Amino acid sequence: MTLANALTTLRGLLAVPTVIAVLGGHWQAALILFLVALATDILDGWVARKGHQVTIVGQLLDPLVDKAFYLALFSALAVVGRIPYFGLGLFAFPQLGLAVGALVLWQRRQEFVAEWPGKAAAGLTALAAGLLLLSPRTIGVFWGAVGGQFIAGVYYLIRRTTTRTPAEVPPRTPSMPR
C-alpha cells in the first residue's frame, strides 16, 4: 500500500470516531478529528503526485472515502439536529449521482478527473462541515455546499456527456501546405 493510499484509508477510518464524537456531543473532539481527516485529504493527493504514487486504487478510493466520510458526518449532524434530514437527503443525492457518473466515466475512458467545480464544491463542503461542528448557526454554509454539489454534478454531467472519448475523435489529417 502506498503512503497516499494509507492516508486515504486513515481518513476513512477517522469517520467512525468523528461520528461517535458528534453523537456524544463532544464537539471539540469531533472538530479535531475532522481537521485531521481534512489534512489527510489534502496530503494524500500531494503525496501521490509528488511521490509518483498515483494508483488506480487511489483514484477510486479517494473520492469514495470523501463521499462516505461526509455522508457519515452529515448523517450524525442530522441525528443531533444540526442539519435537517431533508438537507442530508439533498446533499446525498448529487453525491450518489457523482459516484455513479465517476464509475461510468471510468468504464468509458479509464480516467477520473476532478475539475474546478468539483474541487470548489468539496472545499465548500469541508468549510460547512467544520463550521457546523463549531456552531449550529452556520447552517447557511451547509446549504451553499448542497448547492455547490448540485452545480458540480450538473457541470460534470454536461461536460462528460458532450465530450467525446479519445476513441471517438477522428484522426487528424495533416494540413496541406498552400
Description:
The chain is mostly helical. It is 77% helix and 0% strand. It has helices at residues 3-23, 27-50, 56-79, 85-109, 116-134, 139-162. Helix 1 (3-23) runs parallel beside helix 3 (56-79), helix 2 (27-50) packs antiparallel against helix 5 and helix 3 runs parallel beside helix 5. The longest helix is centred in the middle third of the chain and has 25 residues, at 85-109. It is globular.
Layout of secondary structure:
Elements: H1 3-23, H2 27-50, H3 56-79, H4 85-109, H5 116-134, H6 139-162
What is the gist of this entry?
The chain has 178 residues and is mainly α.
What attributes does this structure have?
about 180 residues, mainly alpha, globular
